[in-house]
Amino acid sequence: MACWIGVCTVKQVIFLYYKVAIRMFRQFYLCGLIGLLMYGGSLWAQKANKPNFIIILMDDMGYGDPECYSGIEYKTPNINKLAAEGMRFTNFYAAQATCSASRAALLTGSYPNRVGIHGALFPWAEIALNPEEATIASTLKQVGYKTAMVGKWHLGAKAPHLPLSYGFDSYFGLPYSNDMWPVDYDGTPATDPKKPQSKYPPLPLIEGNEPIRYIETLAHQGELTGLYTERAIQFIEQNKKAPFFLYLAQPMVHVPIYASPKFLGKSGKGLFADVMMEVDWSIGEIMKALKKNGLEKNTVVVFTSDNGPWLTFGEHAGNTGGLREGKGSTWEGGQRVPSIIRWKGTIPAGTVCNNLSSTIDLLPTIAKLSGAPLPKEKIDGVDITPLLFMEPNANPRDEFVYYYGVNNLEAIRKGKWKLVFPHRGQTYKTYTHGKDGQRGGYADVPVPLALYNLSTDPGETQDVKESFPEVVEQLTQAANRYRETLGDDLTKSPGTERRKAAVVNKESK
User: Fold this and answer.
1) Among 5, 153, 261, 421, which residue's Cβ finds the most Cβ atoms within 10 Å?
2) Coil, helix or strand at residue 416
3) Are 113 and 127 in contact, with CB atoms under 8 Å apart?
4) Of 154, 220, 316, 423, which is the active-site residue?
């Protein structure tokens, strides 16, 4: 009997231990599951707090081209809607009035002369943007963003100076401007060795670091807006569950302009209007993709241009909205560009910002909104979130300098005042504009010292320096600060804070 009781007791003890073990396992499992869910929820919340960013950069689109600015020859309902749902800027500037310099500035948050880039880089250029420079893409990569570039790069023609070396996970587009190809303005092959077009290599469409096909005809040019739109939407859909940055640099409305069959001839207002219709369609498709994927309220969309219109091409060029001159100049028509920023439900809808701001301000603003660290090297941009959130008396940028050429400081703006320094500049006024895609001419003329009040004279027609000598002196002193750090070829100032561009290996050309 005692033995039977002892055996039974052992069995009971084993059973008891088994039950306790099961109970403890369940408790630990439940706690682990709860912890995992809490951790996952924390990660989800962290992602939800990081907005997505899309920058849509147009090429050579003038201040007056979108209908919501002063476009009059065509309708741009999707750009209008973007403005109605966001904030439209009236004093927003590209950092320089030419392709490569402007794009370097946007991506690095620096004036282009600070990072050693000027002008428009040719396919055989011996410099490129230095891969050591921080960009918006590499900045966002530090805090977990997926990044993509679609469209015109123009900061280096071949690897290792293509977007994948600058923080982008993927790239699809042209390495430089769409007019850098061996084709005449009428769309036929450029066979005359006397014409500059004959010097260009075939124009490659690149995937990653390698060409996948070549753009050889005007019809091929007309495909680009649609191709880029498809790739942009594909990236959005593939990365809708993670924070992402998309840089979409459209080739239009840079010459040679062309539209796809869906839009060609449909405006009834000419080829430029057809192209504007397709560009507007593209923006509408991207906005639809955001809505379809539930990303409207968690995506900041920036729409702007790299510089003003290339007026020498006549009716194939855009509209400055009454501003003086255009691309290739430091007059307002060259650098003041349309800009709209939409963050649905966060940035007050249908608002207008008249404060001074620039493409160089995008990097620090995006860093602020994403929680990413600012670059270690000095930049020139400022955080404009106080403007986006309409904080009282906000004015993060009160000065802006207009550089052109390699390093000419041609003007400075402070508040409403713009002081133009003596230099030589181009004007389109004394030459007949081009027609049917043919290039017209321009004159190189001396530009005297002048002071303009941009609040009353945005067209820069009335020089008031004699009436406000104290303002001339104040702006001259402000300009001297920039000459000390960024330099100025006009006054033989080398500058102490300029960084070097990358030197392109001749074997990679």
Assistant:
1) 153
2) coil
3) no
4) 154
- DSSP 8-state code for residue 473: H
Measured CA to CA in angstroms, residue 469 lies from 20, 395, 456, 463 at distances of 90, 25, 18, 12
Count of CB atoms within 10 A of residue 126's CB? 13
Pairing of strands 203-207, 210-215: antiparallel
Cβ proximity of 54 and 306 under 8 Å:
no
More confident residue, 391 or 191: 391
Q: For position 14, what pLDDT does the model report?
A: 41
How far is CA 34 from its chain centroid?
43
Which domains, ranges and CATH numbers included, belong to the chain? Answer: 50-393 (3.40.720.10), 404-508 (3.30.1120.10)
- Whether 99 sits among the annotated catalytic residues: the reply is yes
Give pTM, 2 decimals.
0.90
The 3 state secondary structure assigned to 119-145 is: CCCCCCCCEECCCCCCCHHHHHHCCCC
- What percent of the chain shows pLDDT beyond 90? 84
φ and ψ of 403, to 5 deg:
-100, 150
| pLDDT tier, 35 (very low <50, low <70, confident <90, very high otherwise) | very low
- Taking residue 424's Cβ as centre, other Cβ atoms within 10 Å add up to 12
Pairwise CA distance, residues 150 & 74, whole Å: 26
For residue 95, give every residue at least 6 positions away whose Cβ sits within 8 Å of its Cβ, in sequence order, or none.
Answer: 101, 102, 105, 106, 111, 112, 335, 358, 359, 360, 403
Please say if 154 is a catalytic residue. Answer: yes
How far is C-alpha 408 from the geometric centre of its chain's CA atoms? Answer: 23
Residue 507 pLDDT:
47
Under 8 Å between Cβ of 162 and 156:
yes
- For the stretch 169-188, pLDDT in tens is 999 999 999 999 999 988 99
DSSP secondary structure of 313-334: GGGGS---TT-SS-TTSSSHHH
In which residue are the tokens 């839009």 written? 263
The number of CA neighbours under 13 Å toward the Cβ of 195 is: 16
Q: Residue 468: what pLDDT?
A: 98
3, 8, 31, 99: which one is catalytic?
99
Check residue 140 and give left, alpha or beta (phi > 0: left; psi -120 to 50: alpha): alpha
Bridge-based pairing state of the strands 443-447 and 423-427: antiparallel
CB neighbour class for 118 (10 Å; exposed up to 12, middle 13-18, buried from 19): buried
Helix-strand-coil split of the chain, %, nearest 5:
35, 20, 45
Residue 416 has what pLDDT? 98
Distances (CA, A) of 464 to 87, 317, 330, 418, 447: 32, 31, 18, 10, 15
